[in-house]
Write a structure and sequence with these properties.
The structure is a single chain. By secondary structure, the protein is an alpha+beta fold. 46% of the residues lie in helices and 19% in strands. The protein has 5 helices and 6 strands; from the N terminus they run αααβββαβαββ. A 6-stranded antiparallel beta sheet has the order 3-2-1-6-5-4. A hairpin with a 5-residue loop joins β1 and β2. The radius of gyration is 21 Å and the shape is elongated.
């Protein structure tokens, strides 16, 4: 009788307590786990329900920030006069912007939608000018990684990802 009671106690009492404590430890040490399908379903529902650009940008940035555990960064979009990429969300006084003629912007355009990280600045295929411009642009944007947003092959904006709260690097 004792082994049966012990097994039932372990299954119904100890295991839920262990899972609860594990979630707490994961939260404290920024070991975030997410379910991609759940996030995609939620995002699809929210984005289908609104046409307001500010609400869309807010939702996208909040989702990215929560999923990746970011401390800073933002959504940069091409301005209406198409002369620069400005930070649209979160919009802060003195937000950074990059002119469309910047070498880093051309580098993002040429990469065909692939993300650009701090380590790509060391790519020997990039010119010395592009490497230096990329390093300075990432520093100016307070970003460790940038994901371009393309529409029909044209760069319409990018997501700049700052430091992760965990201190881990982007992979």
């Amino acid at each position: 009788l004792f082994p049966l009671l012990f097994t039932l106690t372990a299954v119904f009492l100890i295991n839920p307590i262990k899972e609860y404590l594990q979630r707490g430890v994961d939260r404290v040490f920024f070991r975030l786990h997410y379910q991609p399908q759940k996030i995609l379903d939620t995002a699809s529902a929210v984005l289908a329900a609104t046409l307001n650009l500010e609400e869309i940008l807010s939702f996208i940035w909040h989702t990215v920030q929560e999923t990746l555990g970011l401390e800073q960064g933002g959504v940069f979009l091409l301005t209406t006069d198409e002369t620069a990429y400005a930070q649209f969300h979160p919009h802060l006084a003195g937000s950074p912007s990059l002119p469309v003629t910047h070498v880093f912007v051309r580098t993002l355009q040429q990469r065909g939608g692939r993300a650009f990280t701090l380590y790509d600045c060391l790519d020997p295929l990039l010119s010395i000018e592009a490497q230096a411009a990329s390093r300075s642009a990432l520093k100016y944007l307070c970003a460790q990684a940038v994901t371009p947003l393309l529409l029909k092959g044209k760069l319409i904006g990018f997501l700049a990802f700052g430091r992760k709260a965990s201190g881990a690097f982007f992979s």
